[in-house]
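**User:** My hope is that you can spare some time for a protein that puzzles me. As I understand it, each token names a local backbone shape. I would be glad if you read both lines and explained how they fit together. The protein I mean follows directly.
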Amino acid sequence: MRDNMIRVFAVLTMAVAAGVAVLAVPAGAEVSVGAFAVGGPIEQTFLETGGRPVWGGPLDNARGTADGGQFQPFEHGVFYTKSNVDGGKAYALNGPILAKWRELGWERGALGYPTSNVYKLSTGGFAIPLIGYFGDTPGLWSKFEHGVIYWTEGTGAHPVAGPIYDIWRKAGYESGAYGYPIGDDYRTPDGAVAQRFQRGIITATS
């Protein structure tokens, strides 16, 4: 039932961004937003990231996950929380990051629970006076217990985790030598793990 309820989110446009205005209303007792209640860590993050103007109304009350977490779907995203993950804080996902996480198995998959909201990022660029700005590659990213998911319009959404993530991080993330991931990781014939990036392939033993 959850898959049917949240299926629509995979095609929604990104609504959350770094620097979104923080509401001055503190999270308190459970409140009703439309027909459903919003409370606890989910309410706090809902308010901090823009509330109803950003996320729309909830589509259901908060529901439990198989391993003791909670999730609640909204019109424009879904919120997840678990008491022993990042202090029990709730995080919101939507758009292509949410769609990829769903493809990977939600919180039951290799990445686990989200530990950040979805944020905009940029690799930067350069300006030529009187001509224009070039080289910028805007994207989205979100952090999870066991890795990250990065997305750009040209590369799609892909996770980076484990020893490949460590190598990529040390090289400067998406702004470094390798750029954005352009595919998921895969096993090589000799048993290593490899992943393609815009400017090369990272291979690591697992």
About this structure: The helical segments are 2-6, 40-48, 52-55, 95-103, 162-170. The first helix runs from residue 2 to 6. The CA atoms of residues 36 and 61 lie 5 Å apart.
